[in-house]
């Protein structure tokens, strides 16, 4: 008998969509609920009237099934996620998200029983006045507990939304607004609750010795006579519901770890040995990927894309046991083809050995990486759609060969000041200065269309300002200053790279190489600006009358159409 990696009935992508969708439904409910609380700052009556519309949405058959179905699905999918994880070692942020998610049902059970169950079973009308009286006056400890629950639910939801939206190109622009909303709404809700609590306390203080009219649970059809219901009697009636909910939740947690333990015991009978270049041996269950085995054994192993097969940083060379390896699937083969890998190179995140194997990770973390193996901080970057801008002074060596070093420094600083200022004014980010050349990135905080337009506008402005500088220094220069600019748009890995304190946000990839090549093409054609067809298409600028050619770019199988712009024509993009 062997244990092979089985393909799930429902794909992981579909499961993530269900988890996201169910979470968004619950989050929408929470937003409306907190907004309703916030109206307590106006008056208790305003909050009561708004509650009527709130209940209309969520306390009809459709709203009930949607809300509690989404809550149940979300909890079950989180438990499924925890079961499928091969190790519970994870980044602190991910662990916090899971822990807060599990705390939510634990803290929510009493509130659901005291409101929805009592309403549906006993006919209790849970008005704001009754609930606030209970949480503010009768049992203030429960009020603190519900306030803590509010914060936990809100933080958990906000983190989930952030992880969902963080790679959207527009998210950076609206991020500050969403952050303000995320801070203000729960604060207003808590202040609204406090305002209603003071109102109820004031009204209770004015009542006679009969106390709060109607009590907490009033108008109860199941208890016969209309009026207040003693707390002990209601507690006894609700005990079976609380026991059932807490019991089901506890059993699900115990069952989760029980199933994990059972799986581990079974898998120990069918393990494979994975040997590494340093002599380490990790015994992992058959069905584990090599990357999962590395993590299980605490062996540092790069995986920039998080084990999704979208990069090659986790690749390994097979030394022994090639006969125990399944052939690459389509996703892995595509990535291997892109890097021109030989047959003995495989992606560790996709490779699941069926027998013993010896491997050598080809990208080994440097000794400086003292951070945890799974730390997100260790990730060098992520893939993004950006615009890469290169510029360089033409004939710079000839211009400076007879000048003193300090004079060259002066000229370069004037040139760099022009380039840096214009790049930043047009929404770009300076990446680096290399000799008399510069590299900049556009699109880190805006849409592709706007980023390409910004890059072209910056190019036109730099050409104009370099002409002014050339005229100003005409008596000092043997020839006028001329600049060559190359712009290309596409996918690149953007992240903080370097060593020690010398780290900078930069980009690497084919897009960067092509942009650098286009700057050289501008020199070859004795022009000022060369930009690629993707830039023209994404920017939607008018290219009527602009010279275009197809050029061969080293490393690309197909020619690339580029647009060649003279100094005089560059002003049209300003």
UniProtKB/TrEMBL annotation:
Residue span(s) of domain Guanylate cyclase: 387-519
Organism from which the protein derives: Rhizobium lusitanum
Topology of this chain in the membrane: Multi-pass membrane protein
GO CC terms, sorted: plasma membrane
PROSITE patterns: 2FE2S_FER_2, GUANYLATE_CYCLASE_2
Keywords from the named record: Cell membrane, Membrane, Transmembrane, Transmembrane helix
Keyword Transmembrane: yes
GO molecular function, one term: iron-sulfur cluster binding
Pfam families, per database record: Fer2 (PF00111), Guanylate_cyc (PF00211)
Transmembrane segments: 20-45, 65-83, 95-114, 147-165, 177-196, 239-259
Gene Ontology biological process terms from the UniProt entry: cAMP biosynthetic process; intracellular signal transduction
The keyword Cell membrane is assigned to this record: yes
Signal peptide range in chain numbering: none
Classification via InterPro entries: 2Fe-2S_ferredoxin-like_sf, 2Fe-2S_ferredoxin-type, A/G_cyclase, Adenylyl/Guanylyl_Cyclase_3/4, Beta-grasp_dom_sf, Nucleotide_cyclase, SQR/QFR_C/D
Name of the protein in question: Adenylate cyclase
2Fe-2S ferredoxin-type domain span: 270-365
Subcellular location: Cell membrane
């Amino acid at each position: 008998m062997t244990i092979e990696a089985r393909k799930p009935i429902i794909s992981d992508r579909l499961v993530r969509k269900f988890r996201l969708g169910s979470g968004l439904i619950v989050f929408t409910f929470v937003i409306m609920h907190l907004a309703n609380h916030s109206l307590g700052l106006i008056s208790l009556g305003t909050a009561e009237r708004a509650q009527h519309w709130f209940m209309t949405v969520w306390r009809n058959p459709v709203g009930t099934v949607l809300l509690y179905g989404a809550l149940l699905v979300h909890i079950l999918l989180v438990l499924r996620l925890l079961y499928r994880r091969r190790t519970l070692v994870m980044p602190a942020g991910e662990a916090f998200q899971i822990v807060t998610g599990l705390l939510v049902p634990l803290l929510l059970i009493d509130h659901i029983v005291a409101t929805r169950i009592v309403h549906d079973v006993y006919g209790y009308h849970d008005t704001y006045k009754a609930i606030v009286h209970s949480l503010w006056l009768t049992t203030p400890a429960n009020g603190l507990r519900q306030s803590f629950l509010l914060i936990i639910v809100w933080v958990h939801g906000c983190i989930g939304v952030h992880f969902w939206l963080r790679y959207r190109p527009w998210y950076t622009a609206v991020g500050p607004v969403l952050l303000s909303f995320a801070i203000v709404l729960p604060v207003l809700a808590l202040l609204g609750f406090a305002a209603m609590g003071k109102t109820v306390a004031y009204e209770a203080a004015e009542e006679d010795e009969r106390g709060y009219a109607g009590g907490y649970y009033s108008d109860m059809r199941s208890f016969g006579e209309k009026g207040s219901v003693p707390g002990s009697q209601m507690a006894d009636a609700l005990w079976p519901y609380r026991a059932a909910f807490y019991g089901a939740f506890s059993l699900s947690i115990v069952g989760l770890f029980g199933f994990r333990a059972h799986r581990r015991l079974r898998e120990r009978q069918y393990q494979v040995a994975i040997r590494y270049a340093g002599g380490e041996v990790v015994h992992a269950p058959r069905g584990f990927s090599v990357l999962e085995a590395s993590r299980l054994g605490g062996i540092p192993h790069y995986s920039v894309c998080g084990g999704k097969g979208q990069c090659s940083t986790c690749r390994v060379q097979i030394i022994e046991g090639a006969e125990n390896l399944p052939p690459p699937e389509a996703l892995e083969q595509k990535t291997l083809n892109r890097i021109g890998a030989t047959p003995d190179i495989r992606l560790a995140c996709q490779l699941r050995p069926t027998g013993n194997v010896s491997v050598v990770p080809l990208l080994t973390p440097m000794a400086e990486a003292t951070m945890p193996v799974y730390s997100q901080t260790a990730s060098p970057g992520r893939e993004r759609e950006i615009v890469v801008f290169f510029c360089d002074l033409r004939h710079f060596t000839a211009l400076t060969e007879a000048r003193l070093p300090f004079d060259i420094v002066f000229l370069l600083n004037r040139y760099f000041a022009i380039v840096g200022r214009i790049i930043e004014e047009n929404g770009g980010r300076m990446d680096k200065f290399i000799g008399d050349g510069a590299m900049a990135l556009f699109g880190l905080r805006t849409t592709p269309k706007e980023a390409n337009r910004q890059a072209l506008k910056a190019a036109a402005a730099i050409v104009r300002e370099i002409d002014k500088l050339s005229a100003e220094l005409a008596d000092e220069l043997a020839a006028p200053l001329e600049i060559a600019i190359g712009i290309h748009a596409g996918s690149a890995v953007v992240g903080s790279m370097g060593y020690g304190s010398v780290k900078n946000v930069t980009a690497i990839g084919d897009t960067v190489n092509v942009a650098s090549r286009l700057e050289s093409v501008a020199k070859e054609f004795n022009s000022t600006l060369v930009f690629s067809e993707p830039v023209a298409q994404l920017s939607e600028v008018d290219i009527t009358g602009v010279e275009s050619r197809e050029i061969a770019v080293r490393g690309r199988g197909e020619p690339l159409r580029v647009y060649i712009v003279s100094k005089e024509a560059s002003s049209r993009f300003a």
